[in-house]
From TrEMBL:
<feature type="repeat" description="TPR">
    <location>
        <begin position="138"/>
        <end position="171"/>
    </location>
</feature>
<dbReference type="InterPro" id="IPR019734">
    <property type="entry name" value="TPR_rpt"/>
</dbReference>
<keyword id="KW-0677">Repeat</keyword>
<feature type="repeat" description="TPR">
    <location>
        <begin position="306"/>
        <end position="339"/>
    </location>
</feature>
<dbReference type="Pfam" id="PF13424">
    <property type="entry name" value="TPR_12"/>
</dbReference>
<feature type="repeat" description="TPR">
    <location>
        <begin position="264"/>
        <end position="297"/>
    </location>
</feature>
<protein>
    <recommendedName>
        <fullName>Kinesin light chain</fullName>
    </recommendedName>
</protein>
<keyword id="KW-0802">TPR repeat</keyword>
<dbReference type="InterPro" id="IPR011990">
    <property type="entry name" value="TPR-like_helical_dom_sf"/>
</dbReference>
<feature type="repeat" description="TPR">
    <location>
        <begin position="222"/>
        <end position="255"/>
    </location>
</feature>
<feature type="repeat" description="TPR">
    <location>
        <begin position="390"/>
        <end position="423"/>
    </location>
</feature>
<feature type="repeat" description="TPR">
    <location>
        <begin position="348"/>
        <end position="381"/>
    </location>
</feature>
């Protein structure tokens, strides 16, 4: 550490990096000697130096800014060798890739990887002009699709991907993983275009290929289950989402260590579905599983840890345990406000949850304060038709309705509904929720016929999109019955 302190004292404009190495001799093959203790050979004994060979390999576990000095970054490394399964898989994929591409293609790939999209595109276009080989052209079309995806030109990306797919379908076997990879890329691009039906079609095509080509517990198959689960979750088909998320986690539980972060991500996904269907106790159980993994493996200042505290706090809020909710929100806030830029979307989500807590507690001024923080971030960082912006408007509508400011409530509810109606299928559960909220405002101002109409819409959509025991469905029925009695 004395060298670090000396470096920091010399020039405060320089960022210093401290590498911390974890070396477990048991995890290194006996056929290699990547390091040696030089105590018996060094002239300066107090330095206690370790000598590493030039080809020594380390896995980067974590990169973080030092809590003690903003000019110091700490990188945690773990020694590995060729027997490491992740490294072996990466090396195998790289060898496959290098053997299948030409020198010019590899140059294009390199330009793509460093973000030089225009130069990469020019090179690939020239390759197309000078090639009559279907195999090479299929690869180039695929890379052009990646470029357009990264440039957010999604329609062009789909076009290039489909050209690649058409050629590969003629030259490859129907269970070749390349076909699965292209179908997955097409699906993910359709997701960006909010074309969920086409996204689902191509995710399922990719999944069918992976099921034929891969062992039952292969990580790529787990990823495929997760992708389909995520899409169903976004579409509001929660039973299907849960089915695919659980299949993904089953594979991970068999193939990963119990404290692997990918397993924590799977538990978070399952919890999100339970949250969406109103099963807050099961959601809390899985959010807690994810938290236990993160607390074992992550530094206490990691935003991912804050995300878990935020999720658990939100569940306690939904279960009306305000004291516990506030406890977890405080933990999340301590991390997020130190580690996140002021306009980060994760910070917006966190402020929204605190706003909801204060709204539930009847502290409307405090709720509005935090909802406004969320809205400020969303309006800066999101497009005007983004679903998260609709959620923020809806939250503002709810707190103003609870406060008794019905004109303000209706203003925000209308903004939320306008966005959601354009973005979601007509029977989505979120539309039922918004229609019910607008009905509440209409009822509060005495317009019972309009309130009844919105409640009927909400109940009708809810019956199509929610489980029969979902608490929202019960609320919609009660609201409809109550307003009928008032008419």
């Amino acid at each position: 550490m004395k060298f670090v302190r000396r470096s920091l004292r010399k020039n405060q404009n320089v960022v210093t990096v401290l590498f911390g190495m974890t070396i477990d001799p048991k995890k290194v093959s006996t056929s290699v000697t990547p390091f040696a203790n030089t105590d018996d050979y060094s002239v300066i004994l107090q330095d206690e130096e370790i000598l590493f060979t030039m080809n020594t390999m380390f896995l980067v576990k974590e990169i973080k800014k030092s809590a003690k000095n903003s000019h110091l970054w700490e990188v945690e490394l773990t020694l590995i060798d060729d027997s490491d399964p992740q490294l072996a898989a990466l090396a195998h994929r790289m060898k496959e890739h290098l053997s299948e591409s030409t020198g010019w293609q590899r140059l294009g790939d390199w330009l793509l990887n460093i973000g030089q999209y225009q130069q990469a595109e020019e090179l690939y276009i020239n390759l197309l002009k000078n090639s009559s080989c279907d195999k090479n052209n299929a690869y180039v079309y695929q890379q052009l699709g990646l470029i357009k995806h990264n440039q957010q030109e999604y329609t062009e990306a789909v076009s290039y991907y489909k050209k690649s797919l058409k050629i590969y379908q003629k030259t490859l076997s129907e269970d070749d993983q390349k076909l699965g990879a292209i179908c997955k890329n097409i699906a993910m691009t359709y997701e960006k275009l909010d074309d969920q039906s086409n996204a689902l079609e191509f995710f399922e095509k990719a999944h069918d290929i992976y099921k034929k080509a891969l062992p039952a517990n292969h990580p790529d198959l787990s990823t495929s289950y997760r992708n389909i689960g995520q899409l169903y979750n976004n579409m509001g088909n929660y039973s299907k989402a849960l089915e695919f998320y659980e299949k993904a986690s089953t594979i991970q539980e068999k193939t990963l260590t119990s404290d692997h972060l990918d397993l924590a991500a799977s538990y978070d996904n399952i919890a999100s579905v339970y949250n969406n269907v109103g099963d807050f106790s099961d959601a809390l159980e899985f959010y807690d599983k994810a938290l236990r993994i993160k607390e074992k493996t992550l530094n206490r200042t990691q935003p991912s840890l804050a995300s878990s505290y935020n999720n658990i706090g939100s569940m306690h809020c939904c279960m009306d345990d305000h004291k516990k909710a506030l406890k977890f929100f405080k933990k999340a806030r301590k991390i997020l406000e130190k580690s996140m830029p002021p306009n980060d979307p994760d910070l917006a989500s966190f402020y929204s949850n605190i706003g909801k807590l204060y709204d539930n507690m009847g502290k409307y001024s405090k709720a509005i304060k935090f909802y406004e923080k969320t809205l400020k971030i969303d309006e800066i960082t999101l497009p005007l038709d983004h679903p998260s912006l609709a959620t923020s408007y809806n939250s503002m509508g709810q707190v103003y309705n609870n406060k008794g400011d019905y004109s303000k409530a209706l203003e925000y509810y209308t903004k939320a509904f306008t966005i959601r109606e354009k973005a979601l299928p007509p029977n989505h559960a979120d539309l039922a929720f918004l229609k019910h909220d607008i009905g509440v405002v209409c009822e509060n101002v005495g317009d019972y016929s309009m309130a009844r109409q919105f409640y009927e819409w909400a109940f009708s959509i809810g019956q199509l999109s929610l489980p029969s025991d979902h608490p929202h469905l019960h609320v919609y029925q009660l609201s409809l019955d109550n307003v009928k009695r008032k008419m």
